[in-house]
Design a protein that fits this description.
Helix content is 41%, strand content 10%. The chain is of the alpha/beta class. Strands 5-4-3-6-7 form a five-stranded mixed beta sheet. Helix 2 (212-224) crosses helix 3. The chain is elongated.
Amino acid sequence: MSLSDGDGSAWELSAQVEQLRTANAGLREVINGQMTQLEAQRALLETRSMQLEVQVGRLHAQAGQLEAQAGQLQVQAGRIAELERRLGSDSTTSNKPPSSDSPYRKPAPRSARRSSGRRPGKQPGAPGTTMPLVEDPDEVVILDPGCCGDCGADLGGAPVAAVQRWQVTDIAPPPPPRVTEYQLITRVCPGCAGSTGASAPALALARAQYGPGILARAAELLCGHYLPVGRATALMGSLLGVSVSTGFMAGVRGRAALLLEAAFLPRVRELLRQVGVLHVDETPARAAGGLAYVHVACSDHLTVMHTGGRSSADIDAGQVLPGYTGTIVRDGYTGYTHLIARRVLRNRGHPPPVAARLASSGPACSSRSTPVVLRYYRERRTAGHDSTLSPLSAAWTGDEEPAG
């Protein structure tokens, strides 16, 4: 090999080395650029990671706040439900006495009636009823055929084969009112020339007035059937033929009340003082344009009510309890402590089962309800609830401790 050949090979190797160095430098620049990008991306990811961690922390904090708010809402919902329950409770849904019920809020209708499961109308197996024919009708109309329906022959003298009776019962027009005139004669004495006149009867207190029959029927419409004054006035004219004014009808209730107070109520009070078991109670109500207490004393068949305050004198104003020596069923109100009843059963707190059963016994809480009260208290004592019993009820639970 010649010298020139060796120099050429070295030169080629040197050129290749330069090319490799150049390529290596380019690769380094590419790698450095990519490393810079990766570092930037890594820094960006770290920043985003930190931001996400902050957001996660905030979300955890918000979740805790939401849980706390949910707990507060649950507590508040429970308090609202309890307040609504207390606000809507009365003597029929809780152990509150009836005297605590608001007289300005009308209670929701609560009926003790239950469905019997039977269809309305006549029941299967019930005896049927048919409108009977009367034997002495007020009017008889004879309907006789004049000629034969087949050939047209005259049937004037033909024998009667059958008679069918068809009756229509209807009402007659109201008769005119019966007017009785009392003529009061005045005579002059021939001896002393004095004038003497006849006295008017007790039922004729004015020159022109309605009699007791009209008053009784007006009171029946107004007080017995609870009709408004206008409708009752119209019915007096259409059914009885008596034209009365609405002013007359409006005063009938007061006149009937005065008659009851004078003659009927004293007898009812007398009978109530003779019964063995008497239920008494009081409750607020609107009376005479203001707030008053309605006091009641009742038995199986008799009930007396009067209005007034809540003192012992107001309770005695009913003229039933003073001097009563029987058994009284009452609540724990201290206004009754002055009574001298032989025994007293106290339904302390008006327990709801007792109130409901008393309400289902009818409008008048009577001695029929007493076994229900006694059974309730005996069940309470058997279950260990002695604290609900008053010493005054011991005489009704087996002990012979008189009422104090």
